[in-house]
Amino acid sequence: MTTTDLHPAPPPHAAARRALLAGSAGNLVEWYEFGVYGCFATVIAANFFTVHGGSGAGSAAEGPGGDAAALVATYASFALAFFFRPVGALLFGRIGDRYGRRTALVLVIGLMTLATTLIGLLPTRADIGAAAPWLLTFLRVVQGLSAGGEFGGAVSVMVEYAPPGRRGLYGAWQSFTVALGLLAGAATAAALATVLPAAALYAWGWRIPFLLALPLGLVALWLRTALEEPPGGPPPAPGSAGSVGSAGSVGSANEATAPAGSATVREQVRAVGLGIGRIMGWSAAGYAFLVVLPSHLQSALGASFRDALLATTLVNLGFAASILPAGLLSDRVGRRPVMLGGALGVAVSAFPLLHVLQSPGASPQARAAAVLAAGALVGLLAGPGPAMLAEMFPRRVRCTGLGLSYALANAVFSGCAGLFVTALTARTGNTAVPALYAATACALSAPALLTLRADDHREPLR
To answer: What is the DSSP string of 289-309?
Structure first.
């Protein structure tokens, strides 16, 4: 086998851009929906999880007097979808590794588009009674399966198409489209909250953002059906390539001759565990700041729905602004310093930033700066994160390995964020719980990030 066979020539820039667009478009649709669900958590609680229905504006939502139990139930449904993500990562990851990245990506975007559209058409509890929350939860599970397969396939395509020295930047587009999707969801919710009376928003206006996923998803589906497989040919057959290296990163050449068996499985399981440790801070801080913030500001701090959505828009702007620069910087100085800086930054500043938001004397400018800074710190983790995970696994298991690491971390540290923060705040009355959650996870993630090697970003993908 020649050197050219091992390291194929980089693809033409036009093909790389098409792959980036196809991967990004579907990812944006996926996260648009999650952003909408987070922004409308209090409205969904009123319509689906409050016993007396909730087509009015006062049922479960505005202010600290709202129905906390209904909001907890809403986040329980949110968390359940996350716990199906690892199943989706295994299912669609295996499809992507065995049958090609395009096949997996087409399936997941089709499934997500269908489930999201159906949420917009669901009858509420006032219409059909207790069946409504169960139907919503079922569709959330379908979305969880789809989202679990999205990350592994999209990141594999983006990173495998990346020109030399640009894996961090290309992988960062996955996180960047997460930010765009969350921003689109928050902006749509804010626009509806501005133009619609509260009663109309609770009665039918909340359906509009979910129904908009249909045309968006069809565009993403069209882009993905035209996608070509990344360079390097079809994925190798199982057992024909090496295993994950001892540090969970790119391994040595003699690993390619290692026999398949329990040792290889153990190394892959270890790499998944290490990957979870490296991104747990990203998962926890990202959801605490980017998704849970709107309902927390309303239920715990008494903010209005519009003010909470404005804060969410600003924090996502800060997040989006730092992602691509962080990915590009990691291509130059390595993944470790950039991600470690983000984790320690969140751990140190989470409480001061939340204090500014809670302070009655803080100016609007200071509060805006606080939420922008919080989002930017998460971006330091999210920018290099996808490429870092992709570099931990060989091609034959890349979709599955990086997808499973991401899905498990998100299931535990993201999916439970809303449930944990809302329930613990209600029980203790401590409004600093989101800061505690994000800071603790980032502090625990720092030792795992220290295991990153300085030259991982320079090694070719296997």
So the answer is: HHTSHHHHHHHTT---HHHHH
Where is pLDDT greater, at 46 or 84? 84
Give the pLDDT of residue 238.
47
Give me the phi and psi of 459, to 5 degrees please.
-75, 145
Contact between 448 and 285 under an 8 Å Cβ cutoff? The reply is: no
Residue with tokens 């929906």: 33
Q: Which of 262, 232, 286 is nearest to 394 (CA)?
A: 232
CA distances from 101 to 107, 157, 222, 262, 399 (A): 10, 7, 15, 26, 8
d(CA 132, CA 320): 35
Averaged confidence pLDDT in the chain: 80
Residue 75 CA, chain-centre distance (Å), reads 16
**Alpha-carbon gap, residue 260 to 272, rounded angstroms:** 18
CA distance 459 to 361: 51
Residue 405 three-state SS: helix
DSSP string, 85-130: HHHHHHHHHHHHHHH-HHHHHHHHHHHHHHHHHHHHH---HHHHTT
Q: Are the C-beta atoms of residues 260 and 241 closer than 8 Å to each other?
A: no
Task: Using alpha carbons, select from 307, 102, 58 the residue that is nearest to residue 203.
Answer: 58
Q: Is the pLDDT confidence value at 258 over 50?
A: no
Give the whole-angstrom CA distance, residue 39 versus residue 33. Answer: 10
Average pLDDT over residues 130-140: 86
Residues 413-447 as b/e (b if ≥16 CB within 10 A, e otherwise) read bbbbbbbbbbbebbeeeebbbbbbbbbbbbbbbbe
- The rounded distance, in Å, linking the Cα atoms of 77 and 79 is 5
Nearest-angstrom CA–CA distance, 333 and 175: 19
Residues in Cβ contact with 141 at an 8 Å cutoff, skipping those fewer than 6 apart: 80, 81, 84
Least Cα distance to 201 among 211, 215, 191 occurs for 191
**Per-residue confidence at 295, pLDDT binned at 50, 70, 90?**
low
Q: What DSSP assignment string belongs to 118-184? A: HHHH---HHHHTTHHHHHHHHHHHHHHHHHHHHHHHHHHHHHHHPPTT-HHHHHHHHHHHHHHHHHH
- Rounded CA separation 232/209 (Å): 39
* Phi–psi pair at 271, nearest 5 degrees: -65, -40
**pLDDT tens digits for range 70-103:** 666 666 666 677 788 899 999 999 999 988 888 9
Q: Answer yes or no: are the C-beta atoms of 352 and 125 closer than 8 Å.
A: no
DSSP category for residue 205: I
pLDDT value, residue 67:
55
Residue 218 has pLDDT above 80, yes or no: yes
Q: From CA 432, how far away is CA 430, in angstroms rounded?
A: 5
